Each structure stands twice: as structure tokens, then as C-alpha cells.
């Protein structure tokens, strides 16, 4: 269905809808079935701080956004959310925040990681805290962090420049280097892109797919662009494609990245769910195998305001997990608890690294 080494043009053709989506998604599901199984892994998402020193033009947490009440959760608050999730069977948690300079702010995160190592055996912690100095990643890894998610956002340097202010904090080269550093220092490494932002072409998205394949990443977290009224986007870019178009583009990207990689974990993201009420199921049917229910305490929820209409389920984690399990069963997928859900790709990559060094 997909040539072994698809070209940029072939990918762009499929992204534009030149092929059959049903065939594409079925092929992606076959690959998932073969490499991982008909399962869904869960990561409990905790949005630990909405502070950010960067100013990405599309993001509601950007530094210059006025009137947003900023917070950072205390380590003890994070412990109690983690302990609650663990009791329900979750064995992987994603701690997410904006990007801050330096490493002082990482002390609290390191304390959380050390606590997990002691108190929550068999848990894999995922971090998504933006670009850090190398000693920041090292410190987190030494404290027990195992997975790091850093979206490239746009693999095209010119698109990256268009949506990131030209200041010392934003450098496409440095971001690529950060991903390379994570990969070679043994982190289970994830990246992803924004899909359907105004001005982006299917050729750009084809390049993103080739980038993710060539970076040899272990996990993918990508989602559609969603309008964010607190940002300058409206003033600088035209309208985005309509929500259904962005949703379908995201599904095609999901299926294609599944077909172009082997044994990686791919998330069906909150942004997809925001644009489409059954976005999670649609993502899973296109080859995704990870969902990340939001466990952020209600007092902070609304303040992690990345974009408008961010999908929020106001229910207890227990009910959310039960409900998701039922929904996934109805599409023939089993929700896996009590298992951190490592991607086979990571094990292979680590064995390969050992062979090369040993
Ligand atoms: N729409 C969708 N995703 C967004 N992000 C930031 N702003 C938006 C938006 N308007 C994503 C970025 C970033 C993560 C924190 O949220 O890709 O990696
Ligand atoms: Fe900060 Fe990330 Fe938003 Fe950029 S996308 S402004 S780095 S939270």
C-alpha cells in the first residue's frame, strides 16, 4: 500500500487525500497489530506548571500572554495525584509544563521523580518540559526520568521561523540537537508536530514524516493546530483549514507515521479530541495506541490554556478510565493497565546502541 521508502511527493499525495483513507488506516492498524498488538496504553497527564519563558506565536501559554493566572504545583500536590493514578492501575505519567530557563526549577521535578522511584514501583515517568540545558536532562534522568517528549513542532526551518519569534530562545538547530542528545543519552525519546496551521502545505507535513522516521524516535505525540484567542496568530496568519480537514490530516499523519516506523508508541492527543468529539477513537483507528487522560487537579485545569475549547472531562479519574476502557472495547481495543507500555522500538534501539558501543 505504501512504498517501502515513500518519497515526499508520494506522502504529500496521500496527505492531500489522493488515496483511500480506509485502506490507509487499515494498513496502519495491521502494522500496529503486528508490532504491538490491539491495545491502548495510558499515560496520566499532569500539567505541573503553566509558566513559560518562550513566546511561540500560536500558544496560549506564551510569555507575553496577559491575564493568565500562572501556577506551579508543589511536589506534594503532584505526589498525591500520582498516588491516586497508581492505585487505579496507571503505570506511566506525563509531567508537562512550559519551558523555563536554567535548571533551578527542575529541583521539584527531580524530587517527584525520586519519590516515584521509591513509592510507585514499575512506573515510567515521561517529561515534557521543553528544551533544557544538557545537565538538566542528565539530572532528571539520574533522578529516575525515563522518557522525554520534545516536539520539533515544524521540521521545516522556515515554518519554524515563521511561528517562533526571532530571539535567542528560539533556534531550530538547537531543537534538533536537543532531540539528538536525548536519543543518544538513553532517553526514550518522543517528538511530534503541529498539523494544519495556516500556511503549512502537505509537502511540509510530508517532510515532517520523513524527519520523524529519520530521527529514529521511540514515541510520537502530534496533533492539530487549534485556534488560541490569547495569541497574535489571528493578526499574522490567515484562517486555518476547517476543523474536520485538520482532523483528517492528523489521522493521515498518524497512519503514515505508523507505516513508516516500527514498534513506536503514537498518542491520540487532546487537541484531536478537541476538534472532534470521537477524536480519540478515530486516532486509535488510524494506528495510534496511547491516550493521555488529564489528571491535573481541577483548580489548575483551566489555567493550562494552550488553545480554545481544550477538551476537558470533569469527572473522577476512576470514572474516566472506566469510560475510556468501554469506549475502546467497542472498537476492538483493549485498555492496558498495570503495565508501563514500553515501545518495542526503544528496546531495539538500546540493544543496537549497546552493540555499537560494546
Ligand atoms: N494548537 C495546538 N497545539 C498547540 N500547542 C501549543 N499551542 C497550540 C495550539 N494553538 C502545543 C505545542 C506544544 C504543546 C505544549 O502544545 O505543540 O508542544
Ligand atoms: Fe511555551 Fe511550549 Fe507554548 Fe511555546 S508551545 S509558548 S514553549 S508552552
CATH superfamily: Aldolase class I
Q: Point out poorly predicted stretches.
A: none
- By secondary-structure content and strand pairing, the structural class works out as alpha/beta
* Mean pLDDT metric: 96
Q: Could you walk me through the main structural features you see in this protein, from its secondary elements to its overall organization?
A:
The protein is 44% helix and 11% strand. By secondary structure, it is an alpha/beta fold. The protein has one domain: Alpha-Beta Barrel (TIM Barrel), CATH 3.20.20.70. Strand 4, helix 5 and strand 5 (147-149) form a beta-alpha-beta unit. Helix 3 (75-87) runs parallel beside helix 4 (106-119). The chain starts with 7 loop residues before the first helix and ends with a helix. Bound molecules: 5'-deoxyadenosine (5AD) and iron/sulfur cluster. 5'-deoxyadenosine binds at residues 58-59, 151, 153, 194, 223, 225-226, 228, 271, 306-307. Iron/sulfur cluster binds next to loops.
Amino acid at each position: 500500500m505504501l512504498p517501502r521508502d515513500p518519497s515526499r511527493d508520494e506522502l504529500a499525495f496521500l496527505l492531500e487525500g489522493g488515496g483511500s483513507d480506509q485502506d490507509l488506516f487499515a494498513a496502519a492498524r495491521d502494522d500496529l497489530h503486528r508490532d504491538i498488538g490491539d491495545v491502548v496504553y495510558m499515560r496520566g497527564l499532569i500539567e505541573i506548571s503553566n509558566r513559560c519563558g518562550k513566546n511561540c506565536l500560536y500558544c496560549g501559554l506564551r510569555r507575553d500572554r496577559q491575564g493568565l493566572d500562572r501556577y506551579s504545583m508543589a511536589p506534594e500536590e503532584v505526589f498525591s495525584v500520582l498516588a491516586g493514578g497508581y492505585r487505579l492501575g496507571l503505570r506511566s505519567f506525563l509531567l508537562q509544563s512550559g519551558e523555563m530557563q536554567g535548571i533551578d526549577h527542575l529541583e521539584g521535578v527531580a524530587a517527584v521523580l525520586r519519590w516515584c522511584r521509591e513509592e510507585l514501583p514499575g512506573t515510567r515517568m515521561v517529561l515534557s518540559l521543553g528544551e533544557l540545558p544538557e545537565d538538566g536532562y542528565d539530572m532528571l534522568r539520574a533522578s529516575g526520568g525515563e522518557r522525554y517528549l520534545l516536539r520539533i513542532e515544524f521540521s521545516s526551518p522556515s515554518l519554524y521561523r515563521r511561528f517562533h519569534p526571532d530571539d535567542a530562545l528560539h533556534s531550530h538547530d538547537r531543537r534538533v540537537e536537543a532531540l539528538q542528545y536525548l536519543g543518544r543519552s538513553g532517553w526514550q525519546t518522543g517528538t511530534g508536530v503541529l498539523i494544519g496551521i495556516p500556511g503549512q502545505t502537505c509537502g511540509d507535513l510530508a517532510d515532517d514524516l520523513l524527519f520523524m522516521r529519520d530521527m529514529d524516535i521511540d514515541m510520537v505525540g502530534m496533533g492539530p493546530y487549534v485556534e488560541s484567542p490569547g495569541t497574535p496568530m489571528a493578526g499574522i496568519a490567515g484562517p486555518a483549514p476547517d476543523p474536520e480537514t485538520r482532523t483528517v490530516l492528523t489521522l493521515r499523519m498518524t497512519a503514515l507515521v505508523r507505516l513508516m516506523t516500527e514498534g513506536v508508541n503514537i498518542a491520540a492527543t487532546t487537541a484531536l479530541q478537541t476538534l472532534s468529539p470521537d477524536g480519540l477513537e478515530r486516532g486509535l483507528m488510524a494506528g495510534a495506541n496511547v491516550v493521555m487522560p488529564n489528571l491535573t487537579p481541577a483548580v489548575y485545569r483551566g489555567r493550562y490554556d494552550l488553545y480554545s475549547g481544550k477538551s476537558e472531562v470533569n469527572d473522577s479519574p476512576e470514572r474516566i478510565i472506566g469510560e475510556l476502557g468501554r469506549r475502546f472495547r467497542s472498537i476492538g481495543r483493549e485498555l492496558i493497565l498495570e503495565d508501563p507500555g514500553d515501545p518495542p522500538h526503544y528496546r531495539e534501539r538500546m540493544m543496537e546502541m549497546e552493540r555499537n558501543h560494546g
